[in-house]
Design goal:
With 342 residues, the protein is of the alpha/beta class. The chain has two domains: 3-63 and 160-341, QueA-like (3-Layer(aba) Sandwich); 67-145, QueA-like (Thrombin, subunit H, Beta Barrel), CATH 2.40.10. Helix content is 19%, strand content 28%. The mean pLDDT is 95.
C-alpha cells in the first residue's frame, strides 16, 4: 500500500493555531463507519451518541514541559533538546537541534548549569541518549526550565499551558498531548458518568511517533517508534465485562486505541493488566479486536494517525469525510475540531 494514497490537500488557514475558549464547544463530525453517513454536531453532543453500558477509555498521560533550550559547554552554541522517553532513572531519549553539533561526550547546560545533559549515545534522525545531572526534584526543575513542546505546525505562542493538557492528565511522561481528550470538560465527563457510561483510564506516553513523518513509499516499510503504556487490572476487568455484556468500547484518541489494540492483539481479544512498550502500526487491513468506536481529531495528510482512522472506518469513508470537513471549514489538528467514528 502506497503512502501517497493517504494524501489530501488542506488549506493552511484551517490548521487551528489556538484552542477555542470553551473546550467542549468545538465542532464534531459524526461518521458512521459502515454506511459512511455524516452528521454535523458540537462536541458536547457526544453524550447523545453514547449508550448506557458503553465504556469510554481515556489516556491520562500528562505532557511534560519537555522542550529545553541550553548552551553547549565548549562553544556556548545554542542547543535545543526535546525529551521523548525516559529509558531508565536519569537516562532520556531526546530529539536534538542542531544534531550535527551534538556528539557522544557533548555536555549541554540548562538554567546556568542547574540541569546538565551529557550525550552518551548517538543515533540517526537527530536522536540522542542523554544522562541528566541535577540536584533536587527533576519534574520541579523541568517545570521551571522547560516549555510546552507544541507541534511544528502551531506558530502562535500558547497563552495558557493548561490548554495543551487534558483536564484529567495525571501521569507525567508525554512529549505531546493526546489531543482528542482536549475537548472534554469535567462537567461533560460527569454528565457522561450520570448516563451510566463507564469511564476508565489507560496511560500511553506520546513520543517520537507524533513528530515523525512517514518517509517511505510503501506503508509496510514504515517503522513505528515504541511508546510506553500501562493498563491496570481494574481497567482490564471493566473492559472485559463491557464486551461480555454487549457494550461498546469507545476509545478517546489514537493513543488509547493503540494501548487497547496492543493488549487485545496479544491476548486473543481479551484485556489484561499489562505495561510495556508498543510499536503497533495500524493501517487498512488491520482487524480491530478492542475498539468499537473512536473519538479523534483531524490528522495530518500521510500520517500514521490518518492511516489508523482509515483502518477503522474504511479509507474511502474517511477521505470523503475529510473533503466535507474542509468544505465546511472545520478546524484541523491538535487545537482543531473532533470526529466521532462509530
Amino acid at each position: 500500500m502506497k503512502v501517497e494514497e493517504f494524501d489530501y490537500d488542506l488549506p493552511e488557514d484551517l490548521i487551528a493555531q489556538t484552542p477555542l475558549k470553551e473546550r467542549s464547544s468545538s465542532r464534531l463530525l459524526v461518521l458512521d463507519k459502515t454506511t459512511g453517513e455524516i452528521a454535523h454536531r458540537k462536541f458536547y453532543n457526544i453524550i447523545d451518541y453514547l449508550r448506557p453500558g458503553d465504556t469510554l477509555v481515556l489516556n491520562d498521560t500528562k505532557v511534560l514541559p519537555a522542550r529545553l533550550i541550553g548552551e553547549k559547554k565548549e562553544t556556548k552554541a545554542i542547543i535545543e533538546i526535546l525529551l521523548l522517553k525516559n529509558i531508565e532513572k536519569n537516562l532520556w531519549e531526546c530529539l536534538v537541534k542542531p544534531a550535527r553539533r551534538v556528539k557522544i561526550g557533548t555536555i549541554v547546560n540548562f538554567g546556568d548549569g542547574r540541569l546538565v545533559a551529557k550525550c552518551i549515545k548517538e543515533f540517526d534522525n537527530g536522536i540522542r541518549h542523554f544522562e541528566l545531572i541535577y540536584e533536587g526534584i527533576f519534574y520541579e526543575l523541568l517545570e521551571e526550565l522547560g516549555t510546552m513542546p507544541l507541534p511544528p505546525y502551531i506558530h502562535e505562542k500558547l497563552k495558557d499551558d493548561s490548554r495543551y493538557q487534558t483536564v484529567y492528565a495525571k501521569e507525567p511522561g508525554s512529549a505531546a498531548a493526546p489531543t482528542a481528550g482536549l475537548h472534554f470538560t469535567k462537567e461533560l465527563l460527569e454528565k457522561i458518568s450520570e448516563k451510566k457510561i463507564k469511564i476508565c483510564y489507560v496511560t500511553l506516553h506520546v513520543g517520537l511517533g507524533t513528530f515523525r513523518p512517514v518517509n517511505v513509499e510503501k506503508i509496510e516499510d514504515h517503522k513505528m517508534h515504541s511508546e510506553y503504556y500501562i493498563m491496570t487490572k481494574e481497567v482490564a476487568k471493566i473492559l472485559n465485562e463491557t464486551k461480555k455484556q454487549g457494550g461498546r468500547i469507545i476509545s478517546v484518541g489514537t493513543t488509547s486505541t493503540r494501548v487497547l489494540e496492543t493488549i487485545t492483539n496479544k491476548n486473543k481479544g481479551i484485556f489484561k493488566e499489562e505495561s510495556g512498550f508498543t510499536n503497533i502500526f495500524i493501517y487498512p487491513g488491520y482487524q480491530f479486536r478492542g475498539v468499537d468506536a473512536l473519538i479523534t481529531n483531524f490528522h495530518l495528510p500521510k500520517s500514521t494517525l490518518f492511516m489508523l482512522v482509515s483502518a477503522l472506518a474504511k479509507k474511502e469513508n474517511v477521505m470523503s469525510a475529510y473533503k466535507i470537513a474542509i468544505k465546511e471549514k472545520y478546524r484541523f489538528f491538535s487545537f482543531g475540531d473532533a470526529m466521532f467514528i462509530h
